[in-house]
Amino acid sequence: MRLVLLGPPGAGKGTQAQRLATEFDVPHISTGDTFRANALAETPLGRKAKEYMSRGALVPDEIVVEMVLDRLQKSDTEKGFILDGFPRTRPQAEALDSLLVSDGHRLDAVVDLVIDDELVVRRLVGRRSCPGCGALYHLSWGPPLLEGKCDNCGATLVKRDDDDKPTVRRRLEIYHSDTEVLEAYYATTGQLVKVAGDAPEVEVTRRALEALRAHLG
After folding, report:
1. Is 125 contained in some domain?
2. How many domains are contained in the chain?
3. Is 55 part of the annotated catalytic residue set?
4. Is residue 121, in this structure, part of any structural domain at all?
5. Residue among 13, 48, 71, 122 flagged as catalytic
6. Residue 57 sits in which domain range?
7. Active site residue: 48, 71, 88, 207, which one?
8. What is the pLDDT of residues 33-43, one digit of tens each?
């Protein structure tokens, strides 16, 4: 199974990618994780990407493409993969298609998680994480038992720097102006599968699997 997940920040792409990767027994490939792995290893591409990431800018297409396509050449992708965060632009999508065609493959589907902007804002502004054990919380939908403290290890919860309203809205603007063109691109190829993302994660996974079964026959 070879899938791409689309959707705005806060749509739950990472969570759904992990769940679908488990369902289909293929690796979940996150652009963010790939960037961080290269940055940590101090690869030439990692150093270049880090310059952009450190100031909150988008990493240029040529760096992103080279980094992700290198990851897709690893042996664990032979049965497929779930891509989360790539492609973000049409040139990236075309580069991915070219790689797959050269290997005799194509994407099985592109799952587009559809969610209202205002729900995205509420989701991201209210989320908190534990720096100690990595547990995730939400002030409205999944708060800790003790305000500001992790239920598991007692560490003080933190809020991501980019989870404030102005930044979230800017990220949504970037998504709508740059990434939504991919919907038209994949609709033209017949690979686009829209899934409503405004539900608990288990229900969204059920919807995605149902939509994929219908799409793939």
Report:
1. no
2. 1
3. no
4. no
5. 13
6. 2-113+182-216
7. 88
8. 887 788 888 88
Task: For residue 162, tell me if it sits in a domain.
Answer: no
Active-site residue, from 48, 127, 128, 207:
127
Q: Answer yes or no: are the C-beta atoms of 197 and 114 closer than 8 Å.
A: yes
Annotation marks residue 122 as catalytic: no
207 catalytically annotated:
no
Cβ pair 106, 117 in contact under 8 A: no
Asked if the model's pLDDT at residue 153 lies above 80, the reply is yes
- Identify whether the C-beta of residue 108 lies closer than 8 Å to the C-beta of residue 216: yes
Structure-token match 């979940």, residue found: 28
Q: Note whether residue 82 is domain-resident.
A: yes
Which among 79, 160, 165, 170 is annotated as catalytic? 160
| pLDDT, tens digit (0-9, with 9 covering 90-100), for 112-139 | 999 999 999 999 999 999 999 988 899 9
CATH (domain of 14): 3.40.50.300
Tell me: the pLDDT tens digits for 61-104? Answer: 888 889 888 899 999 999 999 999 899 889 999 999 999 999 89
In 10 A of CB 169, how many CB atoms?
Answer: 14
Active site residue 159: no
**pTM of the predicted model, to two decimals?**
0.84
β-sheet bridge partners, residue 142: 138
- Tell me if residue 13 is catalytic: yes
